[in-house]
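Lab notes, practical 5.
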Amino acid sequence: MDHYRGEFRRNVTAIAPAALARLEAHSWPGNVRELRNAVERAMLLAEGSSLCAEDFAGVSAGDQGGEVHRLPAGGVRFEDLERDLVFQALERASWNKA
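Output from the prediction step:
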């Protein structure tokens, strides 16, 4: 968190117990690199000064379930996926591109 706080100039200083429990329950098949990516994503998307469980939506919480992404039968057009993700990010940031 310290590394990304400086790199992204974010004032995220804590992690909620529920978020920590989610991270501890995950099996981490990608090891440290997967954890680093999850923390980086959470730091970018966090809305407050503390990371919450929702900031780790892509991390499964063991038997508690978790967000699962399934490939549609017809496949995915990456241009459409990218456009949708950019749109979602802009909406979440109140259209602030900075």
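Observations recorded by the TA: Residues 39 and 92 are 18 Å apart (CA to CA). Strands lie at 14-15, 50-51.
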